Amino acid sequence: MFEERPPTDASAEFDDDPSQEHVIHEIVSVVADVNDCDVMDLPPVSEVIDPDAVETVVQNPGANVVLGFEYAGGFVRVTSEGVVYERAGLSE
User: Fold this and answer.
1) pTM of the model
2) Strand-strand pairing, 74-78 and 82-87
3) Separation CA 78–CA 85 (nearest Å)
4) CA 58 to CA 82: how far, in whole Å?
5) What is the DSSP string of 2-47?
6) Domain Halobacterial output, which positions (predicted)?
7) Which residues pair with 71 in a beta bridge?
8) 16-48: pLDDT as tens digits
9) What is the β-pairing status of strands 67-71 and 9-13?
10) Which of 28, 32, 19, 34 is nearest to 49 (CA)?
11) Of 28, 37, 44, 81, which has the most beta carbons under 10 Å away?
C-alpha cells in the first residue's frame, strides 16, 4: 500500500488581524503542521528573527516586501498576505 507522508510545505493567509502576536502564531502553527509536532515543541521564533521586523512586513502591504528566514529545519517566507514554510530536503 501507499505510505502516507507528511506535507513538505504549508501556507496560511493573514486575516484582518496583522498584529505581531497573530503573525507569530500563524508562523508557528504552519511550521508545526508540516513538522507534525505541537507548537510548544518548536523554539521561540524570536530566537531566529526580530518579531518587530515581522510585524513591519505584514503591516505595510504596499511595500511588496518578503521576509525570509530559516526556522525549525526549513525556510519561512512572510509577506503582507501570509506565511509559507518549506521543510528543507523533502521537496518532491
Assistant:
1) 0.78
2) antiparallel
3) 9
4) 8
5) PPP---SEEEEE--S---HHHHHHHHHHHHHHHHTS-GGGSPPGGG
6) 20-84
7) 74
8) 666 777 888 889 999 999 899 999 999 999 999
9) unpaired
10) 28
11) 28
